[in-house]
Structures are given as structure tokens and as C-alpha cells.
Amino acid sequence: MSLREKQEIFARTLGIFLNWMAEQNYHWTMGDCWRSTDELLCPHCGTGVSYQELLKYNGRSKTLNSKHNMRLAQDIILFTNDGKMAQPEAYKPLGEKWKSLGGRWGGDFQDFPDWGHFEGIA
User: Fold this and answer.
1) Is the entire prediction scored with pTM above 0.85?
2) Quick one: average pLDDT of 42-55?
């Protein structure tokens, strides 16, 4: 299966998932989806790095080869009914639903749980 076909399946599955979240009355905003690997120049020193490299350097990602780079992942920020950021355990029903749709959930990552990370097939 081509990358484009995987991206389409991911996008369609994400749509189903987001509709399900709305039906369940979840409250959320969208985080990172696609992360460009284009080199960006620092305006102060001129050093070129990608956004993904910055995330890894700053401990916000464990890899340079994120599924976000391939348009195969979406981060979701979940909120409680009173507008506060949800605790990690609140993501568990979302993770179970996402996995039932065939995806991989970041809350299952053993070395670096990423509760709001939802990715498609690789």
C-alpha cells in the first residue's frame, strides 16, 4: 500500500473517530498533525533544523521519524466539561476506540506514553 493510500485511510478513520468523540460529548482541540521536515533557519545563529529535530532535542519527542512527518498521526488535547485539561486516564476510552478502528494509540507507548497521540497504519 502506498503512503498516499495510508494517508487517506488515516484521514477517513480520523473523521470517524472525531465524529464519535462529538457524539460522546467530548471536548477537545487539535494538536500537531503534520510536521514538516523542512529545514528552518534560526534567525539568531543561522543554524538549520527541522521542527521534529527541535521536538526531539527538547525532549518532546523520542524520534526523528515521527508518524506526524508522514501525515499519519494526530495529537488531540482533551478537556473536562469545565474546560480544564484532562488527566491521562481520561484518554483511555479514546485510546480503546481508536484501536478498535485499527489505529495505534500513544498511551500504549511503554517508554514514553503520549496520551493524546493517535496514529494510523505505518
Assistant:
1) yes
2) 87
